[in-house]
Design a protein that fits this description.
two-stranded parallel ribbon; disordered N terminus; mainly alpha; 419 residues; 2 strands
Length: 419
């Protein structure tokens, strides 16, 4: 049996022309049959590719996700270890700024990881508390170092999900008066609830997550826009075709055939319930092609009577469907979804090559865990940490490339570490 909603690749659309000459009618049937078969072939191609990606994603999660999460947990320990130094009085000036920046960087990497099992809110709370403690330990606590104030402002923005509009003086007051801070938080949250605030799908910095960065984004956007423009030009055609009396009659026949109340068997009842949902959706969005696809499978005796106008409309819709299926295939191959990225990164070549790539990747992750834990053991004193802070300042001159601009392979899929 053909897949639900698809047509049999060996069959075309059964049509009877009532207004054209014999040669024109035959040519119309031949054109529509070819388009009909092409739609089915491209749909099957997409289904096969989608199934391949999904199967590999399931295997990847089974094979790699546990060690991915182990790296994240090791990174959590490393972040907590760094946070424990924030309030040390002997770490100050540019070194203190470097430490805060380092922790922010590690938190960003951890939060960007799609496999992260760690509650980073707890980590950020601990980080924020350490910053406040460090500020209060200042001999002149009314004068908060600029770098500490900047990081505290960043933390508050992340906690509230928006930029905070407070002067430095107002921010210092919040730091020293917990009651004022709580009142401010409550007022902001209340305002967001009353205004119907809804968050977006961006990462915590309002930028695209580095895990889903693709150099071909601009090309893909142009490709998608081109296909969207093409699709929009045919919306009126689809609406007009759907209003045809034959489509309405065909819809009623399908609704009668597929109605779940006519089935006593629970499995068949559930199947027809799904088919009725497809049928209802096709009606709601004015998709005549979906109606034809269902009719091809469940009303094989149905014959579509074509006139010249209906022939042109149906041909336009079928060409639009071919175009859309090609766009869907492009998205499967070049999209920015996690399963697509993983397939692009590890799914190429032979099965042996894929196994080798995953094995080497797991080994790299295991080494990351060892390196992180070794750092926690190695850096036990302020003096030991200061060596690393000095090295970071010298290496980066305290200017770093934004993470969203890093090539995918530079930080792996998971919680990378800074050597």
């Amino acid at each position: 049996m053909a897949k639900q909603g698809h047509i049999n690749s060996n069959s075309g659309l059964t049509v009877v022309s009532v207004s054209s000459s014999g040669s024109q009618s035959a040519q119309a049937r031949e054109t529509l049959d070819k388009l009909w078969v092409e739609v089915n072939k491209k749909q099957q191609r997409n289904d096969r590719y989608q199934a391949k990606i999904e199967a590999f994603m399931a295997y990847f999660k089974q094979s790699v996700e546990p060690i991915e999460q182990e790296v994240c947990r090791a990174n959590e320990q490393w972040i907590r270890h760094l946070v424990s130094f924030v309030s040390r009085k002997s770490i100050k000036g540019r070194q203190h700024e470097a430490l805060l920046d380092w922790i922010q960087e590690e938190l960003t990497i951890l939060e960007s990881n799609p496999f992260n099992p760690v509650n980073t809110n707890d980590l950020r709370d601990a980080f924020n508390e350490a910053i406040v403690t460090s500020i209060k330990q200042n001999p002149n606590s009314s004068e908060v170092p600029e770098e500490q104030l900047d990081h505290y402002r960043i933390e508050l923005s992340l906690m509230l999900g928006e930029e905070i509009e407070l002067s430095d003086e107002e921010l210092v007051e919040l730091i020293h008066d917990p009651h004022k801070a709580m009142a401010y938080f409550e007022s902001v949250l209340k305002h967001k609830m009353e205004s119907g605030y809804v968050g977006d799908d961006e990462d915590i910095h309002g930028q695209e997550s580095p895990y889903f960065h693709d150099e071909s984004d601009q090309h893909d956007h142009s490709y998608q826009q081109h296909n969207q423009d093409f699709h929009n030009t045919n919306v009126d055609v689809a609406t007009a075709l759907f209003s045809d009396k034959q489509i309405n009659r065909l819809y009623r026949q399908l609704a009668k055939k597929l109605h779940p109340d006519r089935e006593l068997d629970p499995d068949k009842k559930a199947e027809k319930m799904g088919l009725m949902q497809q049928l209802s959706h096709a009606r709601d969005v004015k998709d005549p092609l979906a109606i034809f696809l269902l009719a091809q499978q469940y009303l094989p005796e149905y014959q579509l009577e074509l006139n010249d106008n209906l022939t042109v409309q149906l041909e336009t819709i079928l060409k639009d469907k071919v175009k859309q299926l090609n766009a869907d295939y492009h998205e499967l191959r070049r999209g920015d979804g996690l399963s697509v990225i993983i397939w692009q990164r590890f799914g190429g070549g032979t099965k042996a090559a894929r196994e080798k790539g995953l094995r080497e990747y797991r080994q790299a992750l295991e080494q990351d865990v060892e390196n992180l834990m070794a750092k926690c053991r190695e850096i036990k004193t302020v003096k030991g940490l200061q060596k690393h802070l000095t090295a970071r300042l010298q290496s980066f001159n305290f200017t770093r490339v934004p993470m969203s601009e890093l090539p995918f392979d530079d930080f792996h899929l998971v919680c990378s570490i800074n050597q």
